[in-house]
Amino acid sequence: MFNNINEILQNDGVIAFVTDTVWGIGCLPTSKKAVQRIYEIKKREAKKPLILMSDDIYPLFDYVKQPIEKQAQRLIKDYFPGALTLVVEKSENTPDYITSGMNTVGIRVPENETFANICRNIDGRVLATTSANLSGEPPALNYEEALNYIGKKVDLVIPDYNCTAKGLASTVVGFQEGKTIIYRQGEIII
Question: What is the mean pLDDT of residues 159-179?
Fold first, then answer.
């Protein structure tokens, strides 16, 4: 069921998929063309970065500066996989076109088996992602909404295979000068 996903992504494709929170769209982080398509599909402002997601923290480590902050390490241990996005310093492997030129990148490991299976079937196991909706509109919460909102604009909308989204956005946390900063309060309370 996931065999053609990697081929679609390798050809600058954009896919829509379920996560534990809301539906997302994504592409390979190495495809500048596909990232630009995501911004066009969503009518998203160029200054809003995408985040990187995987089924495991280890593939994401290539994209973040090592060693990562102690607080980030604790939060990874406590909340990954889960509804938490960490904003950390990026490595030279993270393209500026994903981060809107910022020196940080958001990383997340959703707790959703369908999403995990997608990642296990793609080269590098990492997707550059954002929510499946037009900017300013509510995100898709199920397969039908994903089809209606962006289905004609992406290359593939993958069914959720009964691994549904809960509907609450992830909590977004960053770090400055040793302090934890909540950028968006979502499902997880820090």
Answer: 94
Entry pTM: 0.96
Q: What residue ranges in 90-170 does DSSP mark as E strands? A: 104-108, 126-131, 156-157
What is residue 83's three-state secondary structure? coil
Q: For the CA atoms of the chain, what is the radius of gyration?
A: 15
Q: Tell me: the pLDDT tens digits for 64-83?
A: 999 999 999 999 999 999 99
- Residue 190 domain-assigned (yes or no): no
Residues 6+ apart with CB under 8 A from 12: 27, 31, 33, 34, 37
Query: Residue 1's pLDDT band (boundaries 50, 70, 90)?
Result: low
Assign residue 73 the CATH number of its domain: 3.90.870.10
Q: What is the C-alpha to C-alpha distance for residues 85 and 166, in angstroms, rounded to an integer?
A: 16
How open is the CA angle 24-25-27, to the nearest 5 degrees? 135
Q: Residue 101 gets which letter from DSSP?
A: T
> Which of 81, 87, 82 minimizes the C-alpha distance to 50?
87
What is the extent of the structural domain holding 13?
5-184
Query: pLDDT digits over 78-107, tens only?
Result: 999 999 999 999 999 999 999 999 999 999
Run of H or E residues at 181: strand 179-184
110 located within any domain = yes
Domain count, the chain: 1
Q: Is residue 189 part of a domain?
A: no
